[in-house]
Amino acid sequence: QVQLVESGGGLVQAGGSLRLSCAASRSSFSFVVMGWYRQAPGKQRELVASLNPTSGLTNYSDSAKGRFTISTDNIKNTVHLQMNSLKPEDTAIYYCNAGGWFGRIYKSDLWGQGTQVTVSS
User: Which of 50, 87, 94, 96 could hold 112 in an S-S bridge, CB 3.0 to 4.6 Å?
Assistant: First the structure.
């Protein structure tokens, strides 16, 4: 089985930075599409950023534009989310989402367990 595991969350002051990482549990997994979502208490889960590693096409939410950067580490089969100029409204649980190849099997809509990001005023 292939699982996604997020890391890098924590508590940071407004204006600070965090770098989230999402790694596949199997090194043979090859990402095709990947993204980061977040969900605050009582709120709907929303897409923060997505990346097609082949085309390089990225997409960001209006809130993330200019502050967040999504990237992939092809050697380690990981996806990162660099978050700068963090605001209290960025506080949420962040989830990694991906689809890709595990051998000859395509795994779609994989989700990590989530990592908490808390931004204080």
Answer: 96
